[in-house]
Amino acid sequence: xxxxxxxxxxxxxxxxxxxxxxxxxxxxxxxxxxxxxxxxxxxxxxxxxxxxxxxxxxxxxxxxxxxxxxxxxxxxxxxxxxxxxxxxxxxxxxxxxxxxxxxxxxxxxxxxxxxxxxxxxxxxxxxxxxxxxxxxxxxxxxxxxxxxxxxxxxxxxxxxxxxxxxxxxxxxxxxxxxxxxxxxxxxxxxxxxxxxxxxxxxxxxxxxxxxxxxxxxxxxxxxxxxxxxxxxxxxxxxxxxxxxxxxxxxxxxxxxxxxxxxxxxxxxxxxxxxxxxxxxxxxxxxxxxxxxxxxxxxxxxxxxxxxxxxxxxxxxxxxxxxxxxxxxxxxxxxxxxxxxxxxxxxxxxxxxxxxxxxxxxxxxxxxxxxxxxxxxxxxxxxxxxxxxxxxxxxxxxxxxxxxxxxxxxxxxxxxxxxxxxxxxxxxxxxxxxxxxxxxxxxxxxxxxxxxxxxxxxxxxxxxxxxxxxxxxxxxxxxxxxxxxxxxxxxxxxxxxxxxxxxxxxxxxxxxxxxxxxxxxxxxxxxxxxxxxxxxxxxxxxxxxxxxxxxxxxxxxxxxxxxxxxxxxxxxxxxxxxxxxxxxxxxxxxxxxxxxxxxxxxxxxxxxxxxxxxxxxxxxxxxxxxxxxxxxxxxxxxxxxxxxxxxxxxxxxxxxxxxxxxxxxxxxxxxxxxxxxxxxxxxxxxxxxxxxxxxxxxxxxxxxxxxxxxxxxxxxxxxxxxxxxxxxxxxxxxxxxxxxxxxxxxxxxxxxxxxxxxxxxxxxxxxxxxxxxxxxxxxxxxxxxxxxxxxxxxxxxxxxxxxxxxxxxxxxxxxxxxxxxxxxxxxxxxxxxxxxxxxxxxxxxxxxxxxxxxxxxxxxxxxxxxxxxxxxxxxxxxxxxxxxxxxxxxxxxxxxxxxxxxxxxxxxxxxxxxxxxxxxxxxxxxxxxxxxxxxxxxxxxxxxxxxxxxxxxxxxxxxxxxxxxxxxxxxxxx
Length: 973
Hints:
Layout: E1 11-14, E2 20-23, E3 26-27, H1 33-44, E4 50-51, H2 52-60, H3 68-83, E5 96-99, E6 102-105, H4 113-127, H5 132-144, H6 156-159, H7 162-185, H8 192-201, H9 206-218, H10 222-239, H11 246-257, H12 314-321, E7 335-340, H13 347-358, E8 366-370, H14 383-393, H15 405-416, E9 422-428, H16 431-434, E10 445-450, E11 461-464, H17 470-481, H18 483-488, H19 490-499, H20 504-516, H21 522-531, H22 548-556, H23 561-570, H24 580-587, H25 591-603, E12 608-611, E13 614-616, H26 619-632, H27 635-660, H28 684-693, H29 695-706, H30 711-723, H31 725-731, H32 734-751, H33 754-770, H34 774-791, H35 794-810, H36 814-831, H37 834-850, H38 854-871, H39 874-890, H40 894-911, H41 914-930, H42 934-950, H43 955-964
């Protein structure tokens, strides 16, 4: 060989930025864009084999040429000769190896920047707890290796592959870890420049934004930290229609708690120098949760916003704050306070303000739920729905939530035992609704608001609110309108207070109108109010000189005709709150025309934006709007508005269904009526965000449509229920799924439509199976299969066979599971349904693998993988890579298995499926163990244990056993 015996200068590779290769000080010419993409893919493999199929997929996407494999081989030869000049033709050389049906570039931390980055990051993470300053140095050094996005300059089609995105996410994760280490070390300024840049590049990355907020605050930039939070909150609302998550809210709350007290003030009238309300006159809260219960995830922080202009109620606040006494740090008894009082008297406002005042004393979390006990729509929340929401907020995986409210209350109370958690139960109907939600041991505070006295709550401290007296009403107006304006017309101010019957809600509506018109004399406002006429008989006070409905009638007349029409129609909405697009559907107008109408209503307090882009009525105002819509709109008008609203939800849910489950069996909705514009979702992440935000609303729409007594609406109810199946299954909301599937099946039977009944039986059978109710689910699925056969519906038969296959697996009947899936596959092939074929091919392969038929498993799974990649089904690809890896592991092809598991993990992390990610990490660890790589096995298992613990899942103990095994020899699963 030319040059034999003369050592070449060392070769160094770089992929963390522009792809580069240097020999000594000379940068090598890497060729064209495709050659660079090929080398980049090998480099992000970081010494692991990259499958030939994956190379072809990266270089050409879904439409590779027939010559693709030959072109790859030419790239291999060219790269070998570039790295080792004089290498004979067809010689392997020392850098680029044929391995595991693909190619492996031999690199390590000395020759390539990516392995070096990972090694530094891992060492930094390892010592972060005991030496944060040294960890920060290592993580900062790791981050300094990045010169731009990974594989920068590679063609966009190639770089869009998940393997590159996964490496970019490693950079963000390392930056967040560096920020955490900097906070621990007391040097947050070190990471601020890079944090600011990264946050600007990723404005919707909530963990990254939370790290920026925390670092800014720790560095003394508190106003900038709060401004950063407000910016990302507005952007999440505008672009995704969601609220900030728990981690981001926790960062904001930490910033707010850093404000020192400024002295003693009247209730609600003390603001700090930066405009925030200080909690004053109270002993300081402890800095950390009880050590007996170290949190596995961020504690819930669900309290609604506290209004900045809270005023009055000083005596009531003194009373409830005085309950704590001197022993504020360790409450010894459960304190339950029922705040009673008529509608509009300010119960919720006081409860939320009080909760914010004492929140720091409950560092293990604050839970809140609106029980909708007196909602005019009748949509009272069931206790089971509320307790499931609390369990979800406390980190309980949905699959661990038992069936039945009594069974669900037990783990809820167990989680609160020994902890200090604040629970706000707002708008309760009666004692029976509240009792399952009360903590069962000392240390917690439950604040309950209700119009009922709740006399059945034993040992509760009761507080009954009364309307403001004349002095309190005047103080309220002073707070809203200014002392000078009220002092100029004291008699008019007192008359306004009297006409509003002392109710804070009515006073707020009048004050909002007066603020909009600062030149109006208060006497004129009082005269207008005196001359107005309204009706709200259900909530009228017998001793009020004017019906409270008069105030609302007067306020609603102050808006434009279009806004007033919207106000009335919104009373028809069945859910606890609504979005701007839903309001537009009710009105039958484009979103851009309805946005200013909602602004009019919120400006006069007729509607409240209780969280970003989510709106709600107060019960009194909803009842008033309900009276108006029945007085001023015909039955036809009302039905058409509801028809538009229901179609808005159905068509958007159907679009989400197609994104989450492209291989499912949807029933296409009828054409949307004029004026209905389904929300654009774009991808499965946005679909999940929309479904999560509208969860409670969608349940209410299914119920109201089914109860309408109109066949078209009952059919719509069925279709909406079935469109929600993938969401409930993906998120584990099987109890809600059970409710809507029962509703759908009942509606289908009332319609006497065998096709709908078959779907209803299948939907209910599936969710009963998820809940372990197999004695019910199997007969329903078998009945559905018979109906589909009688109807000649082969698609329905195929999907039902898949469900019966899953039931067979649960019973341990693996041959039966395989048979059902093989029948489904045969039907899907006859139907030429490629999406469904791809999904069921992986299932057939999986059952072959579980039966020890690994080669048959690989044949089916590789066929599935090619189709899923063509279809862009990322969730299906992740599941199939896991099946492929499992089969390779049991054939002893451990490098192939490791590659498969890593491909699955890259997709699962992108999709945000932590439970499945943890299961895959366990199997990856088992494969590392089989190769003798004990350290890599332990790393994978530690990552799995972290995820399981964050989910509060019992499988954490199974992984712990692997880690604690003396010699690490645990059987592969």
